[in-house]
Design a protein that fits this description.
Length: about 170
């Protein structure tokens, strides 16, 4: 057994903003242990779902001292971490940053693990990325979707709430 976990994530959104979802595949390297997770939201954005997938996956890890590699097709998420933009945003209190609520939540869990990020090209026949995409799309199509409360509240405040169909 190793002390390494591979996490694959993807987010999906039908309309942007619109109904969305995330998909996660977690693998404990060197074992057959694999877990999948997904959840759908009634009104959100693709970037929020991409980031939320990573956060939820990292929050699922219960052991300490594991090496974690996150594979994502989101340049938004991967570049924010790998290019150290996140550190600058944190120093400035995330002022003026979209998805501030999620970046703050991410920062808390990010500090708990030794994490590296790898960008993978989406829709390029990468088996785990394709699986995550399927999970995310299916989650966004479920009945009784969750509310992305922060996003809906922010949009309402800005006068851009498009929750109701025309």
């Amino acid at each position: 057994m190793t002390n390494k976990i591979h996490i694959y994530t993807d987010g999906a959104c039908s309309g942007n903003p619109g109904k969305g979802g995330y998909g996660i595949v977690m693998e404990w390297v060197g074992t057959s242990y694999v877990k999948e997770f997904s959840e759908g939201y009634r009104h959100t954005t693709n970037n929020r779902m991409e980031l939320l997938a990573v956060i939820v996956a990292l929050e699922k890890i219960t052991r300490k001292g594991l090496e974690v590699v996150v594979y994502s097709d989101s340049k938004y998420v991967v570049d924010a971490v790998e290019k150290k933009w996140l550190m600058g945003w944190q120093k400035k209190g995330f002022k003026g940053k979209k998805n501030e609520d999620l970046w703050r939540r991410f920062f808390v869990v990010y500090r708990k693990h030794a994490i590296s990020f790898q960008w993978v090209k989406g829709h390029n026949n990468h088996p785990q990325n394709e699986r995550c995409d399927s999970l995310a799309v299916l989650a966004s199509q479920r009945e009784n979707l969750k509310r992305d409360t922060f996003f809906e509240k922010e949009n309402k405040r800005e006068g851009t709430n498009t929750i109701f169909a025309k």
